[in-house]
Amino acid sequence: MFKGFVDMWQIWFLKKYSDRPLHLFGVGGIFISGLGTMILIPGDYVTPADLKDLAFYTEAAEVTVSDPDGRWIVFSQGYLPNWKAYIDGSETKIYRVDGILMGVFLPPGTHKILFEYDDDLLGMVQHIKDRCFLDTYRIISLLNQKREK
Fold first, then answer.
1. How far apart (Å, rounded) are the C-alpha atoms in residues 59 and 36?
2. Domain count of the fold of the chain
3. What is the DSSP pairing of strand 109-117 with strand 101-106?
4. Are residue 24 and residue 92 in the same domain, yes or no?
5. Is residue 62 domain-shared with residue 95, that is, in the same domain?
6. Cβ neighbours of residue 134 under 8 Å, at least 6 residues apart?
7. Which class for 133: exposed (0-12), middle (13-18), buried (19 or more C-beta within 10 A)?
8. Domain encompassing residue 40
9. Cystine design at 66: which of 5, 110, 130, 140 (Cβ 3.0–4.6 Å)?
10. pTM of this prediction?
11. Do residues 71 and 134 share a domain?
């Protein structure tokens, strides 16, 4: 996992300013860190009342956001294809922001957003481990049966 210079994840909430997020610089927003710190950026930013239930996990981050106009949400985590984003439980497209970060557009209203890292490799390794255990158990059982005869 990518960690910032002080080992925290960051989320930017930005007003809509183009068809897709390209650059963070010069755009007002609210900066959220994994330590619960908020820094208001001058410009058209959200207020703390717009945010609820901000939580960071080992391989996920989620927040509930209210906004009448809709906005971009940029997660300051390195863009990798294994990341998935969900708005109210439905998967949504993740856009590249500044070439390396992840962003999604939140439609108007109140929504729960979840960024989750889906490690397919970890699942495959677990499956191989389980299969090896079962195959080893079968081989040992067959060898024991042959010895008993």
1. 17
2. 2
3. unpaired
4. yes
5. yes
6. none
7. exposed
8. 10-118
9. 110
10. 0.56
11. no
List the structure tokens of 105. Answer: 């557009």
Residue 48 lies in a domain: yes
Residue recorded with tokens 């910032």: 4
Q: Return d(Cα 91, Cα 117) in angstroms, integer.
A: 13
| Exposure class string for 58-76: b at 16+ Cβ within 10 A, else e | eebbbbebebeeebbbbbb
Q: What is the rounded CA–CA span in Å between residue 15 and residue 29?
A: 7
Question: Could you tell me if 28 and 101 lie in one domain?
Answer: yes
| Sign of the Cα pseudo-torsion (9, 64, 73, 46, in order) | negative
Contacts of residue 52, defined as CB under 8 A and 6 or more positions apart, other chains included, come to 63, 64, 65, 66
**Which pLDDT score, from 0 to 100, does residue 89 have?**
94
- Residue 47 has a pLDDT of 52
- Gap between the Cα atoms of 96 and 123, Å rounded: 26
